[in-house]
Design goal:
Layout lengths: L8 H39 L5 H15 L1 E8 L7 E8 L2 E8 L2 H8 L9 E4 L6 H5 L5 E9 L2 E11 L8 H32 L9 H18 L4 E8 L2 H8 L1 H18 L5 E6 L2 E7 L4 H16 L2 E3 L2 E3 L3 E7 L7 H18 L4 E3 L2 H23 L2 E10 L5 E12 L3 E3 L5 H7 L2 H22 L7 E5 L2 H5 L3 H12 L6 E6 H5 L5 H10 L2 E7 L6 H4 L6 E4 L1 H5 L5 H16 L3 E4 L5 H10 L3 E2 L10 H21 L1
Length: 639
């Protein structure tokens, strides 16, 4: 056709143009399909945990394949407070992960993306834009972008060294790269959130130590491995801080939290890196030691912890000495689960508490029997008040010059239905430990105040008879205690100055009740006395600031006052101290007439003890009151 008529060329060009246009459309559609396929595959990869090494490797390999690049890299900035960024690099099919220190070079790379609207950039050695990004990685060209989350940069993503027929990355590549970067930003942020939630679920937020859930899981796995390997070297240490509540009460909860964090840090430093230290809650910690090596090795670990916690802690600019009670339980040959092992360690820890705190005990099977008996006794004690099994005995307090009764001390007793009469030492410590002492103490106070008020009404000549009631540290720590004392005084009609509340000297020295609590009691008008004075080695500087009215000289000083010059000197010193501080003095445990005579000579004018009267019931006190009334009446008639 062209030979015959050259003007027919247009008939040939039309189909050729159609073919070219069709091929171009096919190529464009194919390329668009490939891009969609790449986006889909990348989205699937990013739905997995993106910070996982295998997933990161697959993602970077996908980037290299999509963009026909030699290198792909993702760098994630550390969470708040962290120091190292995580860099994942794929280069020629070789994957590597490294911790990269956050330094000036990394920050320089991010400056370009400081503006929120800044998107990805194409880089080339022929251009001067961000040359350090290329030179530091030995690249000829690259696409580089910041990963963002809520207007915050969380990292960077890069592909570099274009391979194949194309000379370098084009605008369409950059558009796809930016789309993938957006997907990656969301995935990485979600992955961090998931990791953070997992961490929070298994770690204590205050100390960042494993919590009870994670500790129980690791303990179960340790016991399983022990059983499988036939190894018995698993030890569990249950740690309870002694008198931690006092820190919160005296210094505040912020100081208490600071102390708990410091204790957690100190525990980690004295243990091996692969031992598990956990905070179970409150002031309770636990340590899991695998390959413990038997009881002697476990004892050395416990002793090391006890000694480390005795070193002073610095809280709010002041030094504080802390002690801990530790119970140790070992997984022996017999099958045992984690809950049972933890319970055994708990039992051993309570044994330490009973023996004076600040030490450790290794669980023995005999401890279980003791705990069962104590549990039974606690249950009985809870019901004792309702059943009327608790009752009071009263020991007279007399004036030494004429031995007339000036007051009585209320002493609680328990008539157990099976065990018979139980002295206070057998149940008062249990009541204090379990908190039952608070209710028991109010019961004793109510009965004692009602009784002395009844004596006042029945014997007007003894309307000034005083009543002394012992207080427990737990009662004074109770926020409602002062209100309860005021209620009892109001309901019984007892004059406040006729009620004396006795506090042990040792408790006063250890920090005891806040001075404010004592001042609240003084504001009610009641009197305060320090019991067993001389046995707690109290500080005189502390004593002079305490709002107390009387000192009771402890029985050990009274026992040898007539025969032992040293004890007599101690008693004399206490009397002089009382006079200096203008405090009344009451001697305890007077059993012989020569003790009475020496006390009078020293200047102590009140006492109690078997020489005058043993503890007795209310009827016995009434007989003494009637006798004194008759003697006074007879004396008045004779005169």
């Amino acid at each position: 056709m062209l030979w015959r008529d050259v003007h027919q060329l247009w008939l040939l060009l039309a189909p050729v143009a159609s073919l070219i246009a069709g091929y171009a459309a096919y190529g464009s559609e194919r390329q668009r399909h490939q891009r969609m396929q790449h986006l889909y595959e990348s989205s699937e990869l990013l739905q997995r945990t993106p910070t996982d090494g295998a997933t990161a490797s697959a993602l970077l390999a996908q980037l290299c394949r999509v963009f026909q690049a030699e290198v792909a890299e993702v760098t994630l900035l550390p969470p708040h407070g962290g120091r190292n960024a995580l860099s994942s690099v794929m280069r020629r099919d070789h994957f590597a992960e490294t911790d990269r220190r956050v330094d000036i070079s990394l920050l320089d790379e991010l400056v370009h993306f400081a503006a929120e609207e800044q998107r990805g950039v194409r880089l080339s050695t022929r251009e001067s834009t961000m040359p350090a990004v290329l030179s530091s990685r030995h690249l000829k060209d690259a696409m580089f972008i910041a990963l963002r989350s809520e207007s915050r940069i969380i990292g960077t993503m890069l592909v570099g060294n274009r391979l194949g027929d194309l000379e370098t990355f084009n605008a369409e590549d950059l558009t796809l790269f930016e789309t993938l970067a957006g997907q990656a930003s969301v995935a990485f942020e979600n992955g961090r959130l998931e990791d953070r939630l997992k961490h929070q679920a298994f770690h204590d937020p205050l100390t960042n130590l494993p919590n009870r859930t994670l500790f129980s899981d690791r303990l179960a796995h340790a016991l399983t491995r022990r059983t499988a390997a036939g190894d018995g070297g698993v030890a569990l240490l249950f740690i309870d801080l002694d008198d931690f509540k006092m820190v919160n009460d005296e210094l505040g909860h912020a100081a208490g939290d600071q102390l708990l964090r410091a204790v957690g840090e100190r525990l980690v430093t004295v243990l091996r890196p692969f031992d598990t230290t956990a905070r179970l809650g409150g002031d309770e910690f636990a340590v899991l030691v695998e390959d413990a090596g038997g009881p002697s090795a476990a004892a050395r670990i416990a002793e090391r912890i006890v000694e480390s916690l005795r070193e002073p802690f610095l809280l709010q600019g002041r030094e504080l000495t802390m002690h801990a009670s530790i119970g140790v339980a070992l997984a022996g040959d017999e099958p045992v689960d984690g809950e049972e092992l933890l319970r055994r360690a708990d039992i051993a820890m309570y044994r330490v508490k009973q023996r004076g705190k600040g030490a450790f005990e290794i669980y023995q099977s005999s401890m279980q029997e003791v705990m069962v008996r104590r549990l039974e006794l606690r249950t009985d004690l809870e019901r004792a008040v309702q059943r009327g099994e608790l009752f009071l005995r009263y020991q007279p307090i007399v004036a030494l010059d004429d031995e007339h009764m000036v007051g009585v001390e209320a002493l609680v007793r328990w008539q157990h239905p099976q065990r018979g009469a139980m002295p206070p030492n057998d149940f008062i410590p249990l009541a204090e430990e379990t908190g039952l002492i608070v209710g028991l103490g109010i019961h004793v106070l109510e009965v004692a105040c009602h009784q002395v008020r009844a004596w006042h009404l029945a014997y007007p000549h003894h309307a000034d008879l005083g009543m002394s009631v012992n207080l427990s540290p737990r009662q004074l720590q109770d926020d409602g205690f002062v209100i309860q004392v005021a209620r009892v005084l109001r309901e019984t009609g007892l004059e406040p100055h006729l009620l004396t509340l006795e506090i042990t000297e040792s408790f006063m020295v250890d920090g005891g009740p806040p001075t404010g609590r004592l001042n609240e009691l003084k504001a009610l008008g009641v009197r305060l006395s320090i019991d067993d004075f001389g046995t707690g080695y109290s500080s005189l500087s502390a004593l002079q600031h305490l709002p107390v009215d009387a000192l009771k000289i402890a029985k050990p000083f009274v026992d040898g006052i007539a025969l032992d010059p040293q004890k007599r000197a101690f008693a004399q010193a206490i009397v002089r101290l009382g006079r200096t501080l203008r405090l009344e003095l009451v001697a305890e445990g007077v059993e012989r007439p020569e003790q009475r005579d020496q006390l009078l000579e020293l200047g102590c004018h009140m006492a109690q003890g078997y020489f005058f009267a043993r503890p007795m019931d209310a009827d016995g006190v009434e007989r003494l009151l009637r006798t004194e009334v008759r003697e006074r009446f007879a004396g008045g008639v004779a005169s």
